[in-house]
Design goal:
alpha+beta; Aldehyde Oxidoreductase, domain 4; Aldehyde Oxidoreductase, domain 3; seven-stranded mixed sheet; five-stranded mixed sheet; globular
Length: about 750
């Protein structure tokens, strides 16, 4: 669906082949584990077998004596003079544990040796004396008085100031609009529920890998598959107590991230091992390491109420939202307060968000972090409200939809947004208007939101002698952003897409770029690319002014063509580039922006049909449609892929995926054999409907599209299952066993 107010473009909206495709499908692309350096050693990380324990001592002597071992390091190697491991900050102790381990699988020590096999054998010889402590594994239990305290120095941050006593509650965020308590008492209808989700992993196909070389002159080079070379450089510099200007990060191709590769895990360890040995050192995780030692998304407990008038006008929403941060502090619940009510115009709101530490890996982002769980609660309550009011749930959503000028959940009014349009598109769709026949079948819908950050981006553009251009970017390409950025540059300077060659370069070769996350690259780095294109046109005019003997300001540029004021002289971008660059000095320009924190945002709406087997409890997805306001679809095929990928990940989250721990905090399903992700046999073709409501904050109307599509699936599938079985699901995943338990077929 294309909105009437969308401009017509030459390049934007087309579907060129991605230039990196051939290398990736033929295996020539170089990923993190493909890095090879002369004299390179292999590293291995020893991990904790306990979820909560004090470290009394670490004896590395036997490992150091093992033939072929070149170095062994612990957290003590990261201490400054006069500092002990107890003084190390959380950022460092999540790399190698200090005086305590906080989760099963936490890194404790690392070995560098002549081979991977030698490093593994030597690591087994490291003697760690643990004092095992009681773990706390449930977010609500961790909040109770008397629960085992993870960090004695932690005090809860509240609007009134820090708490007086040690606590597992990192922070209590409060958002209040209107008078929620009074409004709730005046409502004609109130629905409520207690919802919970489990930790799930991003499921990227490539495990973390990093190689580092610490030169004798103090210059450090790191090759890594990371979502942000500049943030990785800064975090590594902080941990190593080394100047960031002496660290160069070279990005390899990345085999997925989805937010899970924002933190550093191996980079500082590889660098320290290299410093100790004088050789480059490569570290890479196996799948067990990834599950147990990197960051999943938080588990949650959300208690929520929605109140409305008998006519279906939402009046009040109240939610108590507790998010597991894993072993170290985070801001997941704070994010939740920023998105929970975004889809609807609700006058009275109270949101209490609790970030809580538990003895599990420190959580990381996963596509629209915190929003899927918040929508799992809100959108089921909307569905229940529709049932109580005997209203069509889509029409109820449309009646209460946020729109331009609606106060968002952070208090600021929305600019032009497209939630109304996507709900209307659902109402008009073939899917929603098709019959769903047969027993044990149900249809569910849900909306979701994720804000779109811009942050800081820089690019360089160099004109080649033949009139083509090279675009150098510093943003990790997770989803084809080299192509989407090249398309925006081609549109800006009026050349064909094939005349722009885009490459991701290292931290020494381009200005600062924030992490590839927050749906920001096509948006934020796209703005920097647009600025660079405009700067290039201005620079070309300055060069051309001398050749044509006219003032630069009088030269016109339109649709890729330069022309003199009287029209007697003209030329395409390539023709003029060959004239003023091919025969003259080189020309490189840059573009840099700080596009801020909140920029437009994106709304998604999904429709799903399911069939539930009453004997086995298995949920089969019959049909799925993902609808989204995508602003302007730069490359529609990429956008469709983002919607489909987010939907499939949401299906896995809803039906099967979870971190499963025993009572001692040991993860029992840390492999893809036992951690059940969807395959092609589990999902149908995902239909997509692209609604384009251009974002007024971007020169081409771009909205970030990567994160919103994972938000609706959890609630949409739960609503469909409720309609199929007559029993509502308040806990994820909706596995066959849980379906049978809640429908009374088996006892819990």
């Amino acid at each position: 669906m294309v909105m009437a107010d969308k401009p017509q473009y030459r390049v934007i909206g087309t579907r060129p082949l991605r230039p990196d495709a051939i290398d990736k499908v033929t295996g020539r692309a170089q990923y993190g584990a493909d890095t090879r350096q002369s004299g390179m050693l292999r590293g291995y990380v020893l991990r904790s077998p306990h979820a909560h324990a004090n470290i009394r001592s670490i004896d590395t002597s036997k490992a150091l004596a093992y033939p072929g071992v070149k170095a062994v390091i612990t957290a003590a190697d990261f201490c400054l003079p006069g500092q002990t491991v107890a003084d190390l900050p959380d950022l460092t102790t999540n790399i190698l544990a200090g005086s305590k381990v906080y989760y099963h699988g936490q890194a404790v020590a690392a070995v560098a040796a002549i081979s991977d096999e030698v490093a593994r054998e030597a690591a087994r010889l490291i003697d760690v004396d643990y004092e095992v402590l009681q773990p706390v594994l449930d977010v609500r239990e961790a909040m109770l008085p008397g629960a085992p305290v993870l960090h004695e120095a932690m005090r809860t941050r509240t609007p009134e100031g820090p708490g007086a006593e040690p606590s597992n509650i990192v922070a209590h965020a409060v958002v209040v609009f209107g008078d929620p308590e009074a409004a709730l008492a005046d409502c004609d209808v109130v629905v409520e529920g207690d919802f919970s989700t489990r930790m799930v992993h991003q499921g990227y196909i490539e495990p973390q890998a990093a190689t580092a070389m610490w030169n004798p002159d103090g210059q450090v080079t790191i090759w890594t598959a990371h979502q942000g070379s500049f943030p990785a450089r800064q975090a590594t510099a902080t941990i190593l107590n080394h100047p960031s200007s002496k660290i160069k990060v070279v990005l390899t191709e990345i085999g997925g991230g989805f937010g899970g590769k924002i933190a550093v895990y191996l980079e500082p360890v590889a660098a320290m091992l290299s410093k100790k040995t004088g050789h480059p050192v490569k570290l890479q995780m196996d799948r067990v390491d990834v599950f147990e030692g990197t960051g999943p998304t938080p588990g949650t407990s959300i208690r929520a109420k929605l109140g409305a008038t008998k006519d279906g006008n939402f009046k009040v929403y109240m939610a108590d939202m507790a998010y597991e941060n894993g072993a170290y502090a985070g801001t997941a619940a704070n994010y939740a307060t920023m998105v929970a009510t975004a889809c609807y115009d609700i006058e009275h709101v109270r949101l209490d968000g609790y970030d809580v530490v538990v003895n599990k890996p420190r959580t990381q982002d996963y596509r629209a972090p915190s929003s899927p769980a918040a929508a799992f609660a809100m959108e089921q309550l909307v569905d229940q409200m529709a049932e109580k009011l005997n209203m069509d749930p889509e029409k109820l959503r449309l009646q209460n939809s946020s729109r331009e000028g609606t106060r968002g959940s952070m208090g600021m009014p929305f600019a032009r947004i497209g939630h109304e349009e996507i709900v209307q598109a659902a109402l008009d769709s073939d899917h929603y208007n098709s019959p769903l026949e047969g027993p044990n079948r149900g249809r569910g819908t849900a909306s979701g939101y994720w804000f779109n950050v811009g942050l800081r981006s820089s690019v360089n553009v160099t004109v080649q002698p033949d009139g083509t251009v090279a675009l150098s970017v510093g943003s990790t390409d997770l989803s084809g952003t080299r192509t989407s950025l090249a398309m925006q540059l081609a549109e800006t300077i009026g050349v064909d897409f094939e005349d722009v060659k885009a490459a991701v370069v290292d931290t020494d070769s381009v200005g600062y770029n924030d992490v590839t996350a927050g749906s920001r690259v096509t948006f934020g780095t796209g703005m920097a690319t647009y600025e660079a294109g405009k700067n290039l046109i201005a620079a070309m005019k300055e060069r051309l002014a001398t050749t044509w003997n006219v003032p630069a300001d009088d030269i016109q540029f339109e649709a890729g063509k330069f022309s003199s004021p009287d029209g007697s002289k003209s030329g395409t971008f390539k023709e003029i580039a060959q004239l003023v660059v091919g025969r003259g000095p080189g020309l490189t320009v840059s573009g840099s922006v700080n596009a801020g924190f909140l920029q437009g945002g994106g709304f998604a709406h999904h429709i799903v049909d399911v069939e539930v087997d009453p004997d086995t409890g298995k949920v089969q997805i019959l049909r799925y449609t993902a609808i989204q306001d995508v602003g302007t679809a730069i490359h529609p095929a990429y956008v469709e892929g983002q919607l489909q990928g987010g939907a499939v990940q949401g299906i896995g989250w809803a039906l099967n995926e979870e971190y499963f721990y025993d009572d001692n905090g040991r993860m029992l399903n840390s492999s893809f054999l036992d951690y059940r992700m969807p395959t092609t046999l589990d999902v149908p073709m995902i239909d997509t409907i692209l609604v384009e409501v251009p974002n007024p904050l971007h020169p081409y109307g771009v909205r970030g599209v990567g994160e919103p599509p994972i938000v609706p699936p959890l609630a949409a599938i739960a609503n469909a299952v409720a309609h199929a079985t007559g029993v509502r699901q308040y806990q994820l995943p909706m596995s066959p066993r849980r379906i049978l338990q809640t429908t009374g077929k088996i006892e819990e």
